[in-house]
Amino acid sequence: MKKLFIPNSFEPPIVFSTQNFHFRILEEELAEVDLAAVMSSQSRLEGIFGPESQWPKSDMTLAENRLSLQVHKEEFEARTAFAYSVFTSLKDKCLGSVYIDPSQSQNYDCEVYLWVRDDSIALDDVLYQTVLNWLQAVWPFTKVAFPGRVISWQEWGLDLSTVNKLISKGPILD
Asked: For the sheet containing 82-88, what is the strand order?
């Protein structure tokens, strides 16, 4: 039986606001401001989801982004992954995104990815600390992975490789 990503009793926040940021569900109605933020930082964001990731493509269209954001909203509603758009606290500028996904590794509860646009890069560490504190205070996770940020891609790959080897061997019998 597969472990639930989050308990049925947990209600994931729809919004979250701090002194520096306002988070809201990443959904298709944000496609234009999200695309502008992504494309303003496209070359730096390449590989943010891993060395093999093709996101964001240099020629990503508004229609492609809208479809992607629709998937994020559907995942949120299905409680299988949680993506947030990050705005300034005044809600006047899209700064980036936060993604909370089920972990591919049995050693962690979730894996988290986040980014800020190039013209707001000074807020990157503040966003990371804000997300870390938020996950610890509000979310039902005890072991959070930040692949590519706190865990190098090489270490993350080794961790997943170990997990896959264990899975392929089948159950361990006492």
From this structure: 15-17, 21-25, 82-88, 94-102, 110-116, 144-145
